[in-house]
Inverse folding.
C-alpha cells in the first residue's frame, strides 16, 4: 500500500518561508496533481517528498512508514524531472538500465526489468538507438523508463511535459494516464497548467504562495471552488 501522507510540512529558505503547514492524505494508487503558479512551492514540496530537500518541520509518511529522515533511495520513490538529462553516449537500453547498474543488479533481472519498461513505453524497437536519434516524446519516455525499472511505490513528476510542443504534450498526457492504469502506482504530478491538472487528476491540490488552497476532485474544484483564487485559477483558460 503506497499511501502518501504529508503532515504539517513547513519549509523556509533563510528568512523566506516557502511552504506553510502542508498536510495532505494521498490514497494508494491515486493520481494527484499539484497545480499552482510559478514560484508557489510545487518543486520544493516534491523535492521534500523525494528526500532531495529537507523540510524545516513536518513528516513524510509512505505506506504508514515515516520516511522523513530516510535516504532518497530508501523511500521507494522515483522522480521524473522537466529536464530529463539522458546520457547522450549511452543507448536507450543503457539509459533505462542505468539506475539498476548503479545498484549492481544481476544482468538477468536487469534485462527483464528493462524489457518490461520498454514494452510498457513502446520503446522495444528503440533500445539500440542513442537519445539523439529519438523524438522529444520518445526521449521523455526513456526518462520515465528509468523510473519504472526501479519499481517505485510512488512516482513523482515535476512538469515533465513542459519542454514539449502542444500536440506532443496532448499525446503524452494520454500516455501518462495509461501508464498510471498499467502500473497501479501512486503518482504525484506537478504542473502550472490547469488543463493538464483538470484532465489528468483523480484529485487536484491547488497551491498558492506555499499554501494549500483546496484539495479535491476536478469536478469539486470546478463546481465548488473553496476560494476566489481557486475559482479564478481553475476557470482561467491557458
Ligand atoms: P515552483 O516549482 O512552484 O515554481 P519552487 O518550489 O521552485 O516553485 O520555489 C518556491 C519558492 O522557493 C520560490 O520563491 C523560489 O525562489 C524559492 N526557492 C526554491 N529553491 C530555493 C533555494 N534552494 N534557495 C532559496 N530559495 C529557493
Ligand atoms: Mg517548479
Amino acid at each position: 500500500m503506497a499511501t502518501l501522507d504529508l503532515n504539517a510540512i513547513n519549509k523556509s529558505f533563510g528568512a523566506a518561508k516557502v511552504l506553510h503547514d502542508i498536510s495532505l492524505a494521498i490514497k494508494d494508487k491515486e493520481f494527484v496533481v499539484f497545480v499552482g503558479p510559478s514560484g508557489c512551492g510545487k518543486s520544493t514540496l516534491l523535492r521534500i517528498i523525494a528526500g532531495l530537500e529537507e523540510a524545516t518541520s513536518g513528516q513524510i509518511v509512505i505506506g504508514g512508514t515515516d520516511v522523513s529522515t530516510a535516504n532518497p533511495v530508501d523511500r521507494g520513490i522515483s522522480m521524473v524531472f522537466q529536464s530529463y538529462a539522458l546520457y547522450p553516449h549511452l543507448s536507450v537500453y543503457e539509459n533505462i538500465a542505468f539506475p539498476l547498474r548503479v545498484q549492481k543488479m544481476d544482468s538477468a533481472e536487469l534485462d527483464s526489468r528493462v524489457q518490461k519498461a520498454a514494452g510498457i513505453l513502446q520503446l522495444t524497437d528503440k533500445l539500440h538507438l542513442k537519445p539523439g536519434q529519438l523524438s522529444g516524446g520518445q526521449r521523455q519516455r526513456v526518462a520515465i523508463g528509468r523510473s519504472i525499472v526501479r519499481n517505485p511505490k510512488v512516482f513523482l513528476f515535476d512538469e515533465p511535459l513542459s519542454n514539449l510542443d502542444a500536440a506532443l504534450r496532448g499525446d503524452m498526457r494520454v500516455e501518462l494516464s495509461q501508464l498510471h492504469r498499467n502500473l497501479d502506482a501512486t503518482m504525484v504530478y506537478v504542473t502550472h497548467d490547469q488543463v493538464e491538472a483538470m484532465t489528468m487528476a483523480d484529485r487536484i491540490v491547488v497551491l498558492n504562495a506555499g499554501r494549500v488552497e483546496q484539495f479535491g476532485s476536478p469536478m469539486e474544484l470546478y463546481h465548488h471552488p473553496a476560494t476566489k483564487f481557486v475559482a479564478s485559477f481553475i476557470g482561467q483558460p491557458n
